[in-house]
């Protein structure tokens, strides 16, 4: 189901790199491993007889529930990455994300203060970067993750030039 508020007509969305799924999966795997290990501690203590008052069903249930939730997230990550998109218009940049809770952010070029590019170790290894747009509003979370490095550099230069041109007109 599409709504014009989230998906304006006539917009061609550019998608982020499919390699970004690997970045998201790496961070998901690390976080899941730590959480499941912590949730297994009561089970280990109960099985070794060090915490006999703790119910075995609860000690086994905590990591099991976390694993089920983790598997759900594993299935959801590729779809979340495919939902991220951006579109350059004449006066502003549109950034779209979300599956269940969709969001389209409009950043006017004249409101941009600076454009930042960053890349973590996994992103660098895959040739990706994250482009962040900073505006006067502290609440603006305008970022486009998973861009190929060359596209990120092009977009940074393009947005900076458009921002300066619009700002000069004020």
Key phrases:
single chain; 170 residues; alpha+beta; 4-stranded antiparallel beta sheet; 4 helices; elongated
Characterise this structure.
With 170 residues, this protein is α+β, with helices and mostly antiparallel strands. It contains 4 helices and 7 strands, in the order E-H-H-E-E-E-E-H-E-E-H. Helix content is 48%, strand content 24%. Strand 2 (85-88) and strand 3 (92-97) form a beta hairpin. The model has no long low-confidence stretch (mean pLDDT 90).
Strand content: 15-25%
Number of helices: 4
What's the count of strands? 7
- Give the neighbour order of strands across the main sheet: 1-2-3-4
Mean pLDDT: 90
Identify low-pLDDT runs: none
Ends: how far apart?
39 Å
Structural class: alpha+beta
Give me the Rg, rounded. Answer: 21 Å
**Could you give a short account of the major beta sheet?**
4 strands, antiparallel
Q: Percent range for helical residues?
A: 40-55%
Secondary-structure element order, N to C:
EHHEEEEHEEH
User: What is the 3D form?
Assistant: elongated
How would the blueprint of this fold be written?
Elements: E1 14-15, H1 20-47, H2 56-82, E2 85-88, E3 92-97, E4 103-108, E5 112-118, H3 121-126, E6 128-135, E7 142-148, H4 149-168
């Amino acid at each position: 189901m599409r709504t014009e508020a989230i998906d304006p007509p006539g917009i061609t969305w550019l998608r982020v790199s499919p390699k970004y799924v690997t970045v998201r999966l790496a961070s998901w795997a690390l976080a899941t491993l730590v959480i499941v290990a912590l949730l297994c501690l009561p089970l280990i203590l109960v099985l070794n007889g060090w915490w006999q008052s703790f119910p075995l069903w609860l000690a086994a249930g905590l990591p099991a529930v976390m694993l089920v939730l983790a598997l759900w997230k594993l299935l959801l990550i590729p779809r979340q990455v495919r939902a991220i998109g951006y579109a350059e218009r004449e006066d502003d940049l549109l950034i779209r994300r979300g599956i269940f809770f969709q969001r389209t952010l409009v950043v006017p070029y004249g409101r941009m203060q600076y454009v930042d590019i960053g890349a973590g170790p996994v992103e660098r290894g895959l040739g990706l970067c994250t482009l962040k747009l900073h505006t006067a509003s502290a609440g603006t979370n305008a970022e486009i993750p998973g861009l190929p490095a060359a596209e990120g550099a092009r977009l940074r230069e393009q947005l900076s030039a458009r921002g300066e041109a619009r700002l000069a007109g004020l």
